[in-house]
Amino acid sequence: MKTLLESNSCTSRRQFLKATAMGALASVVAPAFVRGANLNSRLQVASVGVNGMGFTDVSWIGSHKAVKFVGFCDVDTTRFGKADEAHPGVPHFQDFREMFSKLGGQFDAASVSTPDHMHAYIALDAMRRGKHVFCQKPLTHTVWESRQMRLQAEKSKVITQMGNQIHSHKEYRTAVELLRDGVIGKVKAVHSWVGVQGNNYSKLQAPPSPGPVPASLNWQVWVGTAPMRDYAPDVYHPFKWRDWQDFGSGALGDFGCHILDPIFTALDIREPMTVRAEHDGINQQVWPVSETVHYLFPGTRFTADGTLPVTWYDGGRQPDKSLAQMPESAKLPGSGSLIIGEEGNMVLPHVGMPQLYPVKKFRNFDIKAESQLIHWHVWVEGVLSGKKTSDGFDYAGPLAEAVQLGNVAARFPGQELKWDAKALRITNHAEASARLTKQYRQSWEIHAVA
Fold first, then answer.
1. So what's the pLDDT on residue 7?
2. Label partner for 123 (CA 20 to 30 A): which of 164, 236, 301, 443?
3. What DSSP designation does 90 have?
């Protein structure tokens, strides 16, 4: 299918960006919600995970006038308070399987805001029931799961969206517009980074002594697909799970789907050809304290060459500032991207407006900010209209695959892994290829999309 840019050379890139952001490129049949003639009908949403980022999702999804919550699920009964205050009277569940089964045809869509290791299991269950899904980044816990999410969304013909909300922010949308307009020319290389460490939350290298499971917590369901381990207070739940390989995805998983997103969108990159990682502080339990991940992507019409190097840094690592041609007094942001073009460079702070260098060349260049969208409403409107979003699993799946491929490379430092996306395998390293998926706990297995 041709994009608007390809089908009409007179169509502006500004129009293209607006159209894709609102999900206007293509429509699909939406099986779980048909508004029809009843304009007063509401989208019935069941939410899994309702505190922390889960409450953010509940708040923004629920701010759309067409949404009605019909179920709140959280493994910890102490964490319903904020959601209850905002939306009184919504039934509570501790196990999403019970919620999905009891609600049956009484819900149209689900939001998934849990630790990474449970995203795919819950979202796939919902989609196989014909439900539309909003799922937090990094979408999944493994490369294989990301592929299954994309395939199931396509098979079930549901409207999906990943919760990397910066995708809809004016800062990233403006950067995408500038890059697609060729303001810095064709792109030669990209450097992206985040300041946090891969074991930033617990600061631990191994599981500590176990403790009693709180009466409010269903630990069996919290562990879910992962190998069973003892509960330890203030180590995994809440939030510190991100450090642990069994549950989270480290700094790259936490921020890669945010910071790399405008690069994927603007430059039309998708599957890397190779990936190689260098790092400090990894073991069999936790993610690296700091790392550098080198990707090589096939070139596109927006790149200078037949290949595009994209380098990721975290844990305090950054690219050489001199590459940006910034003034001596300027500093790279704590997190963001440096995009090197044939005719100039862009520094894109994480959730900040793009900056163009060298200053002398772009001193009089007027950056026109794009509009800000409400990311969660884009998904709701997609469900109501039956039109795909620009951040659906057909786009977010490959982005998440690339991010999780970096985490595979982290387990084999210094080794260049050759990626065959079509075959879903690493062609030169059997052990690394086996890491594209994981072992699931008995009765928590995920089955491939048939």
1. 31
2. 236
3. P
Instruction: Name 121's Cβ contacts closer than 8 Å, sequence gap at least 6.
Output: 224, 225, 444, 446
Residues 318-325, mean pLDDT to the nearest whole number = 98
User: Under a CB-based contact definition with an 8 Å cutoff, are residues 388 and 1 in contact?
Assistant: no
Residues 193, 319: contact at Cβ < 8 Å?
Answer: yes
Domain positions in the chain: 14-167+375-391
Of 345, 352, 353, the closest CA to residue 325 belongs to 345
- Confidence class for position 23, pLDDT limits 50, 70, 90: very low
At 358-369, the pLDDT tens digits run 999 999 999 999
Q: What is the pLDDT of residues 248-261, one digit of tens each?
A: 999 999 999 999 99
Q: Calculate the alpha carbon distances from 375 to 7, 23, 339 in Å.
A: 27, 11, 25
**14-167+375-391: which CATH number, 3.30.470.30, 3.40.50.720, 3.10.580.10, 3.30.470.20?**
3.40.50.720
Strands of the sheet with 67-73, listed across from one edge: 92-93, 67-73, 43-48, 109-112, 132-136, 160-163
Among all chains, which residue has been given the structure tokens 């390293």? Answer: 429
Residues 417, 366: Cα–Cα separation, whole Å = 42
Q: Is the pLDDT of residue 41 over 90?
A: no
Tell me which residue has tokens 């594209």.
436
Q: What is the rounded average pLDDT for all residues in the chain? A: 92
Question: For residues 143 and 136, what is the distance between their CA atoms, to the nearest angstrom?
Answer: 16
Cβ(45)–Cβ(201) below 8 Å:
no
Tell me how far apart the alpha carbons of residues 450 and 448 are, in angstroms, rounded to a whole number: 6
pTM, two decimals, is 0.92
315 vs 321: CA distance, rounded Å: 17
pLDDT at 83 over 60: yes
Tokens for 29, please give them.
């049949």
Q: How far is CA 29 from CA 164, 381, 386, 387, in A?
A: 24, 14, 6, 8
Give the Cα separation of 73 and 51 in Å (integer).
10
Tokens 């991207």 found at: 337
Average pLDDT over residues 233-240: 94
Give residue 265's pLDDT: 99
- Residues 229 and 216: their CA atoms lie apart, in Å, by 18
